Carbohydrate porin
Amino acid sequence: MMKKTLIASALVGLFASTAVTANDDTEELRKVIAQQQEVLKSLEQRLDQTEQRLEATADQVESSSSTTASNKTTIGGYGELHYNNYKDTDAKVDFHRFVLFFGHEFTNKIRFFSEFELEHSIAGEGQDGEVELEQAYVEYDYSDTITTKTGLFLVPVGIINETHEPPTFYGVERNGVEKYIIPATWWEAGVAANFKLAPGIAVDTAITSGLNVGNDYKIRGGRQKVSNASAENLAYTSRIKYTAIPGLELAATVQFQTDLAQSSVGVDKAAATLIEAHAIYQVDNFTVRALYATWNIYGKEAEALGRDEQTGWYVEPSYMFNEQLGAFARYAEYNNEAGFSSSSAVESSSVGINYYLHENVVLKADYEELGGSKDSQGFNLGFGYQF
């Protein structure tokens, strides 16, 4: 439109000039016409250049908007391959986990996080594997000191339940205390809030779906994984964490559930309390981790089975020799079979190494001796990554 208007104005000028010189001779008239034609040509070139600059600017703005939107969406993941060889059992190799993360930042206060997992390489009827949605929640910063979660998320308990990517811990397999007693990896659906009370002091609270242990009262088997889960009885979790001193983390979690059996027919109602406490202390290249967890189940059936108290603990010192090589030792005791005693508790002693090809790519090897209610020994080899 702009181009047509300018050309029309130029034509008016041409006719005006022609009228003024109508009485001049023919040669002068030709010169005037030629000059006006040059003016028109120059105007057209300038208009073309302006249009090109406008189009380039529009393309740049569109490209910038697209780049900004893509920068707000993140993709990541982790995976681990295991080889297990123990006495009196067949050696096995398993691509234990393949996980993808997807996240998106809607605003600087509202974010989405998710975790999609394939376990044991292949899932389907008659297969060993499972496809799981381990996280899918929206996080909202209510203020500088209060952040909320809504959706499906990991329960705030223990050391590895929320942070369990292979390069972040020692040992090919996750330790038995956090696997069977806590039980990691453990996620539920509900709402949660994080309160930053002071620098280095935070409290997490959550109201979520709970476990459904059935009549065997085994904690790990009670994870419903938010799959059409019974929600007759919710779970209430609270954790306090202290990180004000560099290199030190102290945390304690309490969870209460009014009925671990979710009011199932034929199973006695059994309220339960989980208490967990842990410490992580790092000085230069030396780190020590210690954790204690116990379930108290208030029900006659659980007591008759000897599962009214299920407890575990471990201590794990480790040392990084350089950026690539680290070694650890771990002693653990745990029981969820028939009461916590020297005759029925599992005793585990492990030593091993982590070799980092990259800070996010690790090769692992460990040797474990099992005593108490289990009598075995063997070794594990593993490979893991995160990005």
